[in-house]
Each structure stands twice: as C-alpha cells, then as structure tokens.
C-alpha cells in the first residue's frame, strides 16, 4: 500500500542510524522500521556494553537509545561524544518515564518517542523533525517536565537573574523549538553567536539542557509574551 505520509526531512537521503538498545526485540524491530524509511541509508545496531567500539568505527548521523538502558554510564559518555561530533540522539521512552525522568533530562537528547507509540510512521516523523532541528516530544513527557519545573526548587528562577534583550529573544526562540541554525536566521547573527547566547541562558537559569530551560521559561513567565511562549511549548511537545 502506498504511504500517505511524508517524513519531514531535508532534501537528502542516506542518513546513517545506530540503534543501541539492550532489548533484542526492540532493537530488531527498530532496525527493521528504520530500514524501511526512504531517507535512511544504513542501519547498525548494538547493545550498550559494545557501544564504545561500535560508535568509534561507524560515523552515524542519529543514535537511538532507550531510557531504560541509561543505568549504564557508558550510554551518557557515548551520547555526549556523539553530540560533539554533530550526531543527533533519539531517546526511546518506556512506561516508567517518571522513574527515569532525571536520567532522561541529563542525557543530551534531541527528541523523544514513547515505545507505546512506536510505529514506522511515528518513527519517521520523529526522526524527520530531529534532522531539521526540531525537538519532538510526547505531550506526556512535556507535562511531566512542566510539573518538575513547578515542584523542584532547583529549577526555580533565581533572585536577581536578568536576561539581556538578546538572551530573552534567544530564550523565546528556544521555547518555540528552533534549532541553532534557525535561531541564527531569525536573529540575523552567526550560529556561534547563538550558541553563546544559549549557553548564557542555560547558565543564568541553572538548567542543564534546552528542554528544561523551555519548561522553566513557560512556568516562571520569563518571556514578555506568555501567549507566544505557550504556543511555542505546544509546538515542542507535539509529535
């Protein structure tokens, strides 16, 4: 049957995927789905214990990991190394999201997909959004992050914190889910300048990543146009 959906990806193909999940059933299922996507060129898979050697010899574009495997510190190390090399990370969420929320927020993930919603179409859409710089996130995870931002004092807005006009503008675009490249176009500055602004924002808000910063911004009302911020949060949380 002919597909009626088209993945949201740049005009190119041949992306290389590395699936690193301990569950053989999930790993094989994901590999089969990935191989069926038009924009995927090569798929390799491994388990966490072999992630170091596999990642070093295979220049992947996207690393797919499971939050349930994050108990192994090697997953974090390789994920951080993947990001430094320009790769993207898709995190597969299980049913115990609440128990693994700290691990999920500490991982430098670019998108999230729940295992219950895992279909070829959902996988294609999530990867497509990641590859164009967006942050796919299930609504349930977005709600949990907002709840965490409300209940955790560590993420509350520190007294006396002041954002510059450009930092505030960067935060607003970050909440909308824009990538650094897209932010650079909107702000008419270089990507290096955007990275510096985003780093300043994360430091001032005491947030470890962009996802937590977006949640804090919405909850604490850090943006002048709260309606626009709410719309941006909806964009980030929509699959």
Features:
239 residues; Rossmann fold; five-stranded parallel sheet; 12% strand; disordered C terminus
Can you describe what's shown?
By secondary structure, the protein is of the alpha/beta class. It has 2 domains: 15-136, Response regulator (Rossmann fold, 3-Layer(aba) Sandwich), CATH 3.40.50.2300; 146-237, Orthogonal Bundle (Arc Repressor Mutant, subunit A). 50% of the residues lie in helices and 12% in strands. It has 11 helices and 5 strands; from the N terminus they run βαβαβαβαβααααααα. The protein has helices at residues 24-35, 51-57, 73-84, 101-106, 120-131, 139-151, 165-175, 180-187, 191-205, 210-220, 226-237, and strands spanning 15-20, 40-46, 62-66, 88-93, 111-114. It has a 5-stranded parallel β-sheet with strand order 2-1-3-4-5, sandwiched between helices. Helix 1 (24-35) links the parallel strand 1 and strand 2 (40-46). Residues 1-7, 153-158 and 225-239 have low confidence and may be disordered.
């Amino acid at each position: 049957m002919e597909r009626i959906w088209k993945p949201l990806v740049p005009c190119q193909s041949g992306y290389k995927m590395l699936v690193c999940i301990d569950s053989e059933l999930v790993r094989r299922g994901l590999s089969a789905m990935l191989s069926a996507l038009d924009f995927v060129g090569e798929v390799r898979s491994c388990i966490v214990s072999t992630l170091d050697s596999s990642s070093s010899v295979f220049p992947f574009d996207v690393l797919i990991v499971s939050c349930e495997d994050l108990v192994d510190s090697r997953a974090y190390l390789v994920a951080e190394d993947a990001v430094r090399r320009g790769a993207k990370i898709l995190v597969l969420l299980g049913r115990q999201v609440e128990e693994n929320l700290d691990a999920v927020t500490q991982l430098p993930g670019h998108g999230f997909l729940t295992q219950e919603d895992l279909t070829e179409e959902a996988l294609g859409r999530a990867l497509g959004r990641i590859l164009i710089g967006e942050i796919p996130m299930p609504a349930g995870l977005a709600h949990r992050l907002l709840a965490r931002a409300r209940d955790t004092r560590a993420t509350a807005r520190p007294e006396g914190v002041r954002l510059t006009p450009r930092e505030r503008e960067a935060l607003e675009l970050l909440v909308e889910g824009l990538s650094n490249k897209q932010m650079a176009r909107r702000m008419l500055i270089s990507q290096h300048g955007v990275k510096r602004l985003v780093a300043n924002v994360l430091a001032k808000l005491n947030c470890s990543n962009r996802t937590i910063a977006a949640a804090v911004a919405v909850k604490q009302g850090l943006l002048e146009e709260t309606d626009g911020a709410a719309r941006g949060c909806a964009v980030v949380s929509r699959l």
